[in-house]
Amino acid sequence: MTDFAIRLATPEDRKEIFNVHRHSVLNLCSEQYTEEQINMWLDGRDQDMYLPAIERGELWVAVSDRTILGFVEVEGNEVTKLFVSGAAAGSGVGKALMVKVIGHIRKNGKTRIYLEATTTARDFYRKLGFVETGTGTFSQGGAAVSLEIVKMELL
Q1: What are the angstrom distances between the C-alpha of 1 and each of 48, 63, 93, 146, 153?
Q2: Left, alpha or beta for 12 (phi > 0: left; psi -120 to 50: alpha)?
Q3: Which domains does the chain have, with CATH numbers?
Q4: φ and ψ at residue 66, rounded to 5 degrees
Q5: In what order do the strands lie in the sheet containing 59-64?
Q6: pLDDT attached to residue 136
Q7: Average pLDDT over residues 10-14
Q8: Using CA atoms, how far apart are residues 130 and 154, in angstroms rounded to an integer?
Q9: Residue 2: pLDDT band by 50, 70, 90 thresholds?
């Protein structure tokens, strides 16, 4: 993997962020989730969904040669999204993005950091020191299908 830099996202990044999000879900989550679950997960999403976090200054991207490899979004002391393109998976991009936001959250005086992980990402977060605090499901738009999630916390 080539070197990459982490920077705050801009509104102009949102189309590429959306593409990374879709690529990550489609390529990295297909072993744990069915096609029906993945379709529900991605249904109704668009590139403008990232604007509120971009405007708050709480969405970072990892960039190499002007290509976005991954992104992370937070709201307060919760990590709400972390996605890495399938091509960049396992290259350290996800870990670097998490180190960035953990520092950001702690700098703002928060000691506990929360997230809801997919079963795909559970072990990744465990390696970063997160512990499981419960389980749940995610669905959207009144869908009959849902995804299993793991609630996690870093002290």
Answers
A1: 29, 12, 9, 34, 29
A2: alpha
A3: 5-112 (3.40.630.30)
A4: 65, 15
A5: 5-8, 59-64, 67-75, 78-84, 113-118, 147-154, 131-138
A6: 87
A7: 97
A8: 5
A9: low
Q: What is the spatial distance between Cα 17 and Cα 11, in angstroms, rounded to a whole number?
A: 10
* Sequence-ordered strand ranges (E) for 85-141: 113-118, 131-138
Give the Cα separation of 4 and 45 in Å (integer). 27
**Each residue's pLDDT tens digit, 42-101:** 888 899 999 999 999 999 999 999 999 999 999 999 999 999 998 888 899 999 999 999
- 3-state DSSP assignment of residue 84: strand
Select from 149, 115, 141, 131 the least CA-distant residue to 33: 149
Q: Which helix (H) or strand (E) holds 31?
A: none
Cβ atoms < 10 Å from Cβ of 145: 14
Averaged over 13-24, what is the pLDDT? 94
pLDDT over 60 (residue 1): no
